[in-house]
Amino acid sequence: MSERLPELPFALEAFGPEGGWAYEDGVLTGRAGARQDRFVPPDGDSLESASDAPRLLGAVPEGDFQLSARVKVGFAAAFDAGVLYLHAGERDWAKLCFELSPARPTICTVVTRGHSDDANSSEVEGDTVWLRLSRTGSAFAFHASADGEKWTFVRVFTLGTEQERASLRAGFLVQSPTGEGCEVSFDRIEFRPTGLGDLRDGS
Questions:
Q1: Cα distances (Å, whole numbers) of residue 95 to 24, 88, 118, 132
Q2: Residue 162: which H helix or E strand, with range?
Q3: How many CB atoms lie within 10 A of CB 124?
Q4: Could you give the dihedral angle defined by the CA atoms of residues 160, 164, 166 and 172, in that order, rounded to the nearest 10 degrees?
Q5: Which InterPro entries does the entry mention (predicted)?
Q6: 128: exposed, middle or buried (C-beta count within 10 Å: 0-12, 13-18, 19+)?
Q7: Of 31, 23, 17, nearest in space to 2 by CA
Q8: Alpha carbon 107 to chain centroid, angstroms
């Protein structure tokens, strides 16, 4: 699938397993199949192939940016998730997840540099939350929000080499690591070609 959403200044291309991606009336939907994930175990061999999940990604313009969306997940099994995804290289990528982890909807992050780390942030009431990934200079930041107005800082990090960051891709991922599949919708999608002045002031 190659898709151009009116909210984004770049085209999106499908990667990984088939995700059944569709866009209609401002809503992007995708579905992960059974036991699909994107993760390199911290205690595993980084030369092994990483597990994979459906991704819809585009090459972001140079400079600072913010990509946000409201994410609704049809939670059915542990670690089902809708994700904003950042890709710098084959072993350099990051996920901001709205995930059933394992029994409560939770904001989780994964940053992979050869191997993946895995960290839980705050729990969320319900099946919907806003997620945002940003680039400010050479750093990246993750935020979450209950209403798309007031944002809670989740994580700041670096990713990839300077050369890899020049061909950065960003977009959407769906996963169902332990279940039989998971459907996710992304709406209120927005791209801003600006960074954040203060990562922790709620803006």
A1: 24, 12, 10, 11
A2: helix 162-165
A3: 17
A4: -70
A5: ConA-like_dom_sf, DUF1349
A6: middle
A7: 23
A8: 11
Report pLDDT digits (tens) over 35-92. Answer: 999 999 888 765 555 689 999 999 999 999 999 999 999 999 999 999 999 999 988 9
Looking at residue 166, its amino acid is: A
Please check whether residue 129 is in contact with residue 81, taking contact to mean a CB–CB distance below 8 angstroms: no
Record the tokens describing residue 16, joined without a space: 């990984």
CATH number of 2-192: 2.60.120.200
* Pairwise CA distance, residues 85 & 82, whole Å: 10
Q: Indicate the pTM of the whole model.
A: 0.95
Q: What is the pLDDT of residues 126-177, one digit of tens each?
A: 999 999 999 999 899 999 999 999 999 999 999 987 777 778 999 999 999 9
- CA angle, corner 155, sides to 81 and 195, nearest 5? 105
CA atoms within 13 A on the CB side of 201: 4
Show the tokens assigned to 100. Answer: 């059933």
